[in-house]
Design brief:
This protein has 3 domains: 10-121, no CATH class; 136-234, 2-Layer Sandwich (Phosphorylase Kinase, domain 1); 246-411, Phosphatidylinositol 3-kinase Catalytic Subunit, Chain A, Domain 5 (Orthogonal Bundle). The model has no long low-confidence stretch (mean pLDDT 94). Helix content is 34%, strand content 15%. The chain is an alpha+beta fold. The chain contains 14 helices and 13 strands. Strand 7 (177-182) and strand 8 form a beta hairpin.
Length: 414
């Protein structure tokens, strides 16, 4: 699938969102190029984009010059969010087998279906993406599952199966996934890696439980397979008519030079969100942090939180996604929680509640609401079809001594 590709030192970056007369008239943003021993991807805006465009992230202001990431094996600012996740990289290595595998190749081969509203083209003056852009439908789900299994087993895929695997629709993660179209919308479909635990059904149940807490979550559907389930997650970087620019928490925090933490994200909302929406977004982020802790979701890293750019140029907290128990009982989140750093405790949550614009009474009320929902997790998961075997495996962590005691102690507080 890569016979025609010759490694390039530079490619063009394109805007595919609103204002680009989709799908016929993408707007050229500028040039992306390899730098520093081919270990970084930089960005240089075009003059027209400097005049009429917007800053893709806070560390990519609309000024002339070259932007480079501080770390190796990354792209500059928000451009880094346009590259594929670890599964996407695996698909690219399997299907395209390019002669070189720099960050620039990963950006290009992520293709037209990549996450967000940016596009990458080999052509300097024309948007010509990798891939054909044709999406599978739900009837292709069994074939898609076979294609994913073939990639996992490093087996050969024929052209029909290869077309069912997409390398670029997700912001972060290593689980097998692809894209389908259902009800006129695009959905990311995630599959099992062959383990006995039905992770996909559990993720669906966890997301629905989060919604019962009053949290804003991505729409999901559990899709039965011959063995277990896949989970379909509706894309929040798409509407029925346009693509949306989305930046990860990693991009937001790096741009500001801040540590990777929930309080830092809450404070960042003061810069990127519209004034009247800040408190609501901060409260939502606080609730998600509490839910992740109490459900033993310790894989809450900076690529699993995102912000969606609205037409007025401000950013809104995206719906929650990739929320599922980690089943490790680590007692440490991926992001800083409070004064005790990443410790997974309600005490730590309350230690820095002011960063979320919350006073004690409001924070306690929100925590109690989450605790009440999590207390009924087992019955709710059973109603979603989760097996008793999987419930018992989760119970040793979610209802383990640490998290159960925290819930019990909190319920007794006045």
């Amino acid at each position: 699938m890569s016979d025609a590709y010759t490694p390039q030192s530079a490619m063009s970056l394109w805007w595919l969102g609103k204002g680009a007369a989709q799908p016929h008239s993408p707007l050229r943003i500028g040039r992306v190029f390899l730098a520093e021993g081919n270990r970084k991807v930089g960005l240089e805006y075009d003059p027209d984009w400097l005049q009429d465009g917007f800053a893709l992230s806070e560390d990519l202001p609309l000024v002339r010059g070259v932007f480079l990431p501080k770390e190796r094996d990354m792209a500059a600012g928000a451009v880094d969010d346009a590259r594929p996740d670890r599964w996407g990289e695996r698909v690219i290595r399997k299907l395209y087998k390019p002669a070189r595998l720099s960050m620039l190749e990963y950006l290009y081969f992520a293709g037209h279906d990549r996450f967000g509203a940016l596009g990458v083209s080999l052509e300097p003056d024309r948007y010509q993406p990798s891939g054909d852009g044709t999406l599978a439908s739900l009837v292709s789900l069994p074939g898609m599952a076979r294609a994913v299994a073939a990639v996992l087993a490093d087996d050969k895929l024929d052209d029909n199966l290869a077309r069912l695997v997409r390398p670029g629709p997700s912001l972060g993660g290593a689980r097998p996934k692809s894209l389908i179209e259902m009800d006129g919308s695009q959905w990311v479909v995630k599959f099992s890696e062959g383990e006995d635990f039905d992770t996909e059904l559990v993720e669906h149940a966890t997301m629905r439980l989060a919604a019962r807490c009053g949290l804003l979550v991505s729409e999901t559907r559990a899709l039965p397979l011959a063995k277990g389930h896949a989970i379909a997650v509706k894309r929040f970087d798409r509407t029925s008519t346009q693509r949306l620019h989305v930046i990860s928490a990693q991009t937001v925090l790096r741009a500001a030079g801040l540590p990777m933490g929930y309080p830092e994200l809450a404070q960042s909302l003061r810069r990127i969100a519209r004034a009247e929406a800040i408190r609501g977004h901060q409260k939502e982020l606080f609730g998600r942090m509490v839910f992740n802790i109490l459900m033993d979701n310790t894989d809450d890293h900076e690529k699993n939180h995102a912000f969606v750019r609205a037409d007025d140029g401000y950013y809104d907290l995206s719906p929650a996604y990739d929320v599922v128990p980690s089943l490790q009982g680590l007692g440490q989140q991926q992001l800083r929680v409070g004064k005790s750093q990443a410790e997974s405790s309600i005490e730590n949550v309350l230690s820095d509640m002011q960063a979320f614009g919350l006073k004690k009474d409001s924070a306690v009320e929100l925590i109690r609401r989450v605790v009440a929902a999590v207390d009924g997790w087992k019955a709710f998961f059973r109603s979603q079809g989760v097996s008793d075997t999987d419930l018992e495996r989760m119970a040793q962590y979610i209802d383990g001594p640490s998290l159960l005691a925290q819930r019990a102690e909190f319920r007794t507080k006045g």
